[in-house]
Amino acid sequence: MTKIAASILSADFADLKQDCLRLLREGVDLLHFDVMDGHFVPNISYGAPVLESLHAALPDAFYDVHLMISDPARYAPDFARAGAGLITFHLEAVPGAVPRVIETIREAGCRVGLSIRPGTPVEAVFPYLEALDLVLVMSVEPGFGGQAFMPEAVQRLAALDAERRRRNYRTLLEVDGGINAQTGPLCAQAGADWLVAGSALFRAPDPAPVIRLLHGEA
Ligand code: DX5
Ligand code: ZN
């Protein structure tokens, strides 16, 4: 079944544990932890100490860490120690050092994802598919929650899905940005295994129907 990753970027940070717990109890599968450095993207979010506290408060949750930072190899080990289960970095941040960053994250004990911005051709990740646990297709320009879904993401997911099938790989596909009850099912149909949703979950008066639709249940 499609998994739902709740992006805590849209949570109430004064009540982070309760806000996450509420969604986990409603059936969200993973917590998506967006890290922004004000350099790779024009926004700053939060760092490893926040993950460490949240992990201590909710130790059974799976933490899907999305690094939107210029130097992922330098900071990934901090996030691994803080409780990350999987760490995704951006190809555009380290175009010449992708294998080295994959290795660093693996050595830190985490599963590894590689993400691409909307303008990066999907073929750019093909050489690394075998070495990855996951590819994250951005369906907005990274940096902010609450943006509109870019429909091209659907074909991009389908192209990655075709390539992984052709090569018989188990690499997971994740999509992030503007995912809601309408756009999520389209992405799942195109091959997305994990759907990231921030505002559609945390800002919904009742997230239960959104979760059902994203799970493909309603
Ligand atoms: C954007 C982040 C997303 C963001 C998604 O750069 O990577 O995870 O929080 O938020 P929504 O679901 O509101 O588009
Ligand atoms: Zn994200």
From TrEMBL:
Chain sites annotated for binding a divalent metal cation: H32, D34, H66, D176
Cofactor entry: Co(2+); Mn(2+); Fe(2+); Zn(2+)
GO terms under biological process: pentose catabolic process; pentose-phosphate shunt
Protein residues bound to substrate: S7, H66, G143, F144, G145, G146, D176, G177, G178, G198, S199
GO MF annotation list: D-ribulose-phosphate 3-epimerase activity; metal ion binding
Active site positions: D34, D176
EC number: 5.1.3.1
Alphabetized Pfam families for the sequence: Ribul_P_3_epim (PF00834)
Source organism, top-level taxon: Bacteria
Known function: Catalyzes the reversible epimerization of D-ribulose 5-phosphate to D-xylulose 5-phosphate.
Protein's name in the database: Ribulose-phosphate 3-epimerase
Gene: rpe
